[in-house]
Amino acid sequence: MTVNRKVALVNPPLPVDIGHHPQFPPLGLAYMAAVLDQNGFEVRIIDCPVNGITHEQLKAELQSFRPTLIGTGSMTPTIESAFKVAQVAKEVCPNAIVVMGGPHATYCDKEVLTNDKSVDIIVRGEGEKTLLELAKQSETGTKLADI
């Protein structure tokens, strides 16, 4: 049996009313993707704002890729969009682990886990090592409490 080693990292779509600011590469997602890639995972960064991907279009992206781990970032102005990403992820890939990181999730972790049942795990602070351990969990059998 081969293990699915696919991870999707999603930069949520921007809300319509957030204004127009220059788009910058999602460096946090890129750092995590590099660590996962170096450890043999197939990683896809889905940068919704830059590529004009809506939540509805995200469904098709995730459905075609079929990741077992889906991560998304969260900033306070985009938290509702990040919640919608988690909901879409669970709808399309119900067995995938949905992880949320970023500043909002770091500082409002209990609130996020209480308010959105689509989010399985919060990663606080820097996520490269933690996300790698989570991605390897099905292979290593490491308990979540030990990550």
| CATH-level-2 architecture | 3-Layer(aba) Sandwich
**Domains, number:** 1
Percent helix range: 40-55%
Elements, N to C (H/E): EHEHHEHEHHEH
What is the CATH superfamily classification?
Response regulator
What does the model show?
45% of the residues lie in helices and 15% in strands. By secondary structure, it is an alpha/beta fold. The protein has a five-stranded parallel β-sheet with strand order 2-1-3-4-5, sandwiched between helices. Strand 3 (69-72), helix 4 and strand 4 form a beta-alpha-beta unit.
Provide the fold topology.
Blueprint (H helix, E strand, L loop, with lengths): L5 E6 L15 H12 L3 E6 H4 L3 H11 L3 E4 L6 H14 L4 E4 L2 H5 L1 H7 L5 E2 L5 H13 L7
Parallel strand pairs: 1-2, 1-3, 3-4, 4-5
Helix pairs in contact: 1-7, 3-4
In short:
The chain has 147 residues and is of the alpha/beta class.
Task: Provide keyphrases for this structure.
single chain; about 150 residues; alpha/beta; Rossmann fold; 5-stranded parallel sheet; 7 helices; 5 strands; about 45% helix
